[in-house]
C-alpha cells in the first residue's frame, strides 16, 4: 500500500488579490441589490396593473348601472346638411352615401360609423333635432334603434346599429309625401 501524505499548503496572497476579493464582494452585493430592485419594481408594476384594471372594471360597472354620468356627445362641424346634426367623431362612409338637392327638394342617405353607445346617440338626437326644428315622431327598438323625425316638408329616419366596439349610424332624409288618395269605388 501506498502511504498518503497530507501536506499543508500555504496560500500566499498578494495585494492585487485583495482588490479582486473586494470587487467580487461588490459584484455579489450589486447582484443582490439588482435582484431586489427588480423584485420591487415587478411588484409595483403588478400592483399598479391590478389597481388600474380594477378601477376600469369598477368604472365600467358604475357606468352601466348609471352611477357615473358619461360625457355628452358634441355636434360635428362637418355636416352635409346644416340642419342634420351628426355626433362628433363619426366618419362618413362616402361609398355608401348619396346626396340629391335642387331648388325644390333635397334628399340623402348618409352612413356613418363611430364610437358611442347607442343610448348616448339617442340622447344626442332627442336633444339636438328640436334645435333644428325637427319633431320626434317615434322611436322603435328591436335589434336596431330607429328614430323618426319630421319637419314641415321633410322626414328624417335615423337608424342606429350596434356593432362590436362601434355603432353604425344611418340618416335618411326624404321629402314628405302627401296624403295617399283613396280611389273611389265605381258604383
Outline the structure in words.
The structure is a single chain. By secondary structure, this protein is α+β, with helices and mostly antiparallel strands. The protein has helices at 15-64, 118-128; strands at 91-92, 98-101, 106-114, 135-141, 145-150, 154-162, 167-175. Strands 1, 2, 3, 4, 5, 6 and 7 form a seven-stranded antiparallel β-sheet that branches. Strand 6 and strand 7 (167-175) form a beta hairpin.
Give a topology summary:
Layout lengths: L14 H50 L26 E2 L5 E4 L4 E9 L3 H11 L6 E7 L3 E6 L3 E9 L4 E9 L12
Antiparallel strand pairs: 1-3, 2-3, 3-7, 4-5, 5-6, 6-7
Task: Considering the chains and any ligands shown, give keywords for the structure.
187 residues, alpha+beta, Protein Transport Mog1p, Chain A, 2 domains, 7-stranded antiparallel sheet, elongated
CATH-defined architecture of the largest domain: 3-Layer(aba) Sandwich
| Radius of gyration, CA atoms, in whole angstroms | 37 Å
CATH topology of the largest domain: Protein Transport Mog1p, Chain A
DSSP helical segment count: 2
Distance between the termini: 144 Å
Mean pLDDT, to the nearest integer, reads: 79
Provide the number of structural domains. 2
Order of helical and strand elements: HEEEHEEEE
Number of strands: 7
| Name given to the CATH homologous superfamily of the largest domain | Mog1/PsbP, alpha/beta/alpha sandwich
Largest sheet: 7 strands, antiparallel
Q: What is the top-level CATH class of the largest domain?
A: Alpha Beta
Overall 3D form? elongated
What is the strand content? 15-25%
Structural class assignment: alpha+beta
**Share of helical residues:** 25-40%
Amino acid at each position: 500500500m501506498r502511504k498518503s501524505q497530507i501536506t499543508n499548503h500555504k496560500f500566499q496572497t498578494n495585494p492585487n488579490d485583495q482588490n479582486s476579493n473586494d470587487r467580487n464582494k461588490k459584484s455579489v452585493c450589486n447582484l443582490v441589490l439588482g435582484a431586489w430592485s427588480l423584485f420591487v419594481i415587478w411588484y409595483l408594476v403588478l400592483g399598479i396593473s391590478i389597481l388600474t384594471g380594477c378601477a376600469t372594471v369598477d368604472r365600467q360597472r358604475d357606468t352601466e348601472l348609471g352611477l357615473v354620468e358619461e360625457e355628452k356627445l358634441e355636434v360635428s362641424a362637418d355636416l352635409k346638411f346644416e340642419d342634420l346634426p351628426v355626433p362628433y367623431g363619426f366618419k362618413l362612409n362616402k361609398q355608401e352615401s348619396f346626396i340629391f338637392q335642387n331648388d325644390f327638394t333635397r334628399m340623402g342617405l348618409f352612413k356613418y360609423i363611430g364610437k358611442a353607445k347607442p343610448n348616448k346617440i339617442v340622447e344626442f338626437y332627442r336633444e339636438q333635432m328640436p334645435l333644428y326644428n325637427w319633431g320626434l315622431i317615434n322611436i322603435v327598438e328591436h335589434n336596431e334603434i330607429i328614430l323618426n323625425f319630421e319637419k314641415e316638408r321633410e322626414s328624417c329616419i335615423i337608424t342606429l346599429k350596434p356593432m362590436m366596439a362601434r355603432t353604425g349610424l344611418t340618416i335618411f332624409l326624404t321629402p314628405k309625401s302627401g296624403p295617399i288618395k283613396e280611389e273611389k269605388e265605381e258604383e
